[in-house]
Amino acid sequence: MRLRPAIDLIHQVGVIPEGDIIDLGCGNGAVGEALAERFDGHKLIGVDSSEAMLVKASETRNYDDLVHADITHYQPSKPPAVIFSNAALNWLPDHETLMPMIAGQLAEGGVLAVQMPGQHDGPSHALARSVAVEMFPDRFADGGWNADVLDPADYYRILSPHGDVTAWETSYLQPLAPAEGHPVRHFTQSTYLRPIMAKMDETEQADYLQRYEAALHSAYPLADDGSAMFTFRRVFFVLRR
């Protein structure tokens, strides 16, 4: 289910010119197989700032090349046919500047295809923030979480001067399997909670997770088998230069 948004985005790319396919923020290569299959005949290049993730991506054997680079400073050696990014650009700030910069790297007729979580105002994320502020009001007075993902209309406005843009959002219903503790907590702990919990020591983290889980039970009631239904909003856009 976690790959469903990426697969849906791939299907929206359409016809592309000659050139490489860039998996921007490729992580462990989770989307590499789908990209290699969809764009067979094109060189697939994975880019990520984590060497550990690139090692895992190399083990998939789906990439022709892997590049260790910060996304904000990465420059392809030649204009690519596609720049694809799945749940990576949401970690970076200033999308008003970032997205046009990335779009400008494309070949003529090339495509920028991006998917990002848009769950900032969903209960899973709003509760994570409210519990943190309640426990540590001074520590989180200035935030400490990522809120840089904009609405689809904003990406349409930002990118329309650079090509033909389609932008939309989709909320996916994702059943989460039973887990030790609340399933939604297990889902968010490896992603959205990381920068929040980084401001806590181990004892504080345990207390925080306990309080966060208690709050989740009202927003995401558990089924009899311990599973939970999770509604997760995603933001998409496709630009053809």
TrEMBL record:
<dbReference type="InterPro" id="IPR023149">
    <property type="entry name" value="Trans_acon_MeTrfase_C"/>
</dbReference>
<protein>
    <recommendedName>
        <fullName>Methyltransferase domain-containing protein</fullName>
    </recommendedName>
</protein>
<keyword id="KW-0808">Transferase</keyword>
<dbReference type="GO" id="GO:0032259">
    <property type="term" value="P:methylation"/>
</dbReference>
<dbReference type="GO" id="GO:0030798">
    <property type="term" value="F:trans-aconitate 2-methyltransferase activity"/>
</dbReference>
<dbReference type="Pfam" id="PF13649">
    <property type="entry name" value="Methyltransf_25"/>
</dbReference>
<dbReference type="InterPro" id="IPR041698">
    <property type="entry name" value="Methyltransf_25"/>
</dbReference>
<feature type="domain" description="Methyltransferase">
    <location>
        <begin position="21"/>
        <end position="110"/>
    </location>
</feature>
<dbReference type="InterPro" id="IPR029063">
    <property type="entry name" value="SAM-dependent_MTases_sf"/>
</dbReference>
<keyword id="KW-0489">Methyltransferase</keyword>
